[in-house]
Design goal:
The protein is of the alpha/beta class and 404 residues long. It folds into two domains: 255 residues, Aspartate Aminotransferase, domain 2, CATH 3.40.640; 112 residues, Aspartate Aminotransferase, domain 1 (Alpha-Beta Complex). The protein has a seven-stranded mixed sheet with strand order 4-10-9-8-7-5-6, with helices on both faces. A four-stranded antiparallel sheet has the order 11-12-15-14. Helix 5 packs across helix 10. The protein is globular, with a radius of gyration of 21 Å. The structure holds pyridoxal-5'-phosphate. Pyridoxal-5'-phosphate binds next to helix 5.
């Protein structure tokens, strides 16, 4: 690299990454092949439109790249079938689901779904941020909470888990156009069947945002939402271990939701697809469709559980009482007897453990300095760590947080 300033910074970041224990629940380490595709000359090509239907010339190769990414994404989540009717509908592969691999990241993907399916000012319903929802699930500071009238559900005060009856009551009372299931900081398995029943009872579409647990679904250690959802969005860079990108899966039926969503992505919201990134997604989808990845996903969950158990043993209150996924939250504030999440994260960072401060349900503190921490097991599992290593990490966290 000729640009020595940027080269130096990349080297510095490489060194930083190497020297820390990374417990950021939304991060991971991609393979050399994913990096190779990302850094390829595919970045040079413009191609607004979709395979076979572009506004640009010279797109024969990138058409193949995008079709391959779609095909692999559908295959990975068990959505490829043999019905000739779906082929006739223009899918690159037979499926009753379509997938758009062009969203530039998770937030624009979610925005595109609402823009396509919910008239401005009407209702979207998602989980409250402090309870584990994402900004784009209708929080007031997000455009999704400004352009649409958002209804936010919370978890139960008793056990910090989703209270499906309460969600159902709220949905029936509010009649949202779309309900979002899927979270940023919720550690337990989501009952998609119950969410389907809630959506049906209230006349809403069901969107699952599986950004966080997509890799666990791919690895078959977390239930698949596809049996119940109308739309599934996901980022590709968290447990799925791909580049920073996103996908929108849509059920193909007479409602033609997929066509509406495709039209919002381009020409409605974005311009040229990032083909280098789409190629990297294709690589990651292939990597995730292997026995080695399934083993990885299982280890991710085992490691998160080991860390949660050890922290609980050491006296820390694990939010929701534990985890069934790759992440967990701990309460560091302990009703004023402990320290705030920001101070806790700073202390850990000083000792080489990277986490993020996080709100906990019914948090009395602000999101910038909340009451807890969110810890994830995906990146360090990629680096080969097992349960005993995560128990040791938990002990180190305990020691650092209790030190003065
Ligand atoms: C559940 C969920 N949805 C969407 C997003 C947004 O993804 P991005 O940061 O790629 O915009 C995130 C990111 O953390 C997320 O956790």
């Amino acid at each position: 690299m000729i640009d020595t300033q940027i080269k130096k910074l990349i080297e510095a970041e490489k060194k930083r990454q190497k020297n820390v224990i990374n417990l950021i629940a939304s991060e991971n380490y991609v393979s050399k092949d994913v990096l190779g595709a990302l850094g390829s000359i595919l970045t040079d090509k413009y191609g607004e439109g979709y395979p076979g239907r572009r506004y640009y010339r010279g797109t024969k190769v990138v058409d193949e790249v995008e079709s391959l990414a779609q095909e692999r994404a559908l295959q990975l989540f068990g959505l490829a079938d043999k019905s000739p009717s779906s082929e006739a509908r223009g899918n690159s592969i037979s499926s009753n689901w379509s997938v758009n691999v062009q969203p530039l990241s998770g937030s624009p993907a979610n925005f595109a779904v609402y823009a396509a399916l919910v008239p401005q000012g009407e209702k979207i319903m998602g989980m409250e941020l402090t309870h584990g929802g994402h900004l784009t699930h209708g929080q007031k500071v997000s455009m999704t909470g400004k352009f649409w009238n958002s209804i936010l559900y919370t978890v139960s005060k008793e056990n910090e888990l989703i209270d499906y009856e309460a969600v159902k009551k709220l949905a029936i009372a509010e009649k949202p156009n779309i309900i979002v299931a899927g979270f940023t900081a919720y550690a337990h398995i989501v009952d998609f069947k119950k969410f389907r029943e809630i959506a049906d009872a209230s006349g809403a579409l069901l969107m699952v945002d599986m950004s966080h647990f997509a890799g666990l679904v791919a690895g078959k250690v977390y239930p698949s939402p596809f049996e119940y959802a109308d739309i599934v969005t996901t980022t590709t860079h968290k447990t799925l271990r791909g580049p920073r990108s996103a996908m929108i899966f849509t059920k193909i039926d007479e409602r033609e939701l997929n066509k509406k969503i495709d039209k919002v992505i381009i020409p409605g919201l974005q311009g040229g697809p990032h083909f280098n990134c789409i190629a990297a997604v294709a690589v990651a989808m292939k990597e995730a469709n292997t026995p080695a990845f399934r083993k990885y996903a299982l280890q991710v969950v085992k490691n998160a559980k080991a860390m949660a158990d050890e922290l609980a043993k050491l006296g820390w209150r694990v939010v929701e009482g534990g985890t069934e996924s790759h992440l967990l939250r701990i309460d560091t504030w302990r009703d004023g007897k402990g320290i705030g999440g920001r101070e806790a994260a700073d202390k850990l960072e000083a000792q080489g453990i990277i986490v993020n401060e996080n709100t906990i349900p019914f948090d009395t503190r602000k999101p910038m300095d909340p009451s807890g921490l969110r810890l994830g097991s995906a990146p360090e599992t990629t680096r080969g760590k097992k349960e005993k290593d995560f128990r040791a990490i938990a002990r180190k966290i305990d020691k650092v947080l209790r030190s003065n």
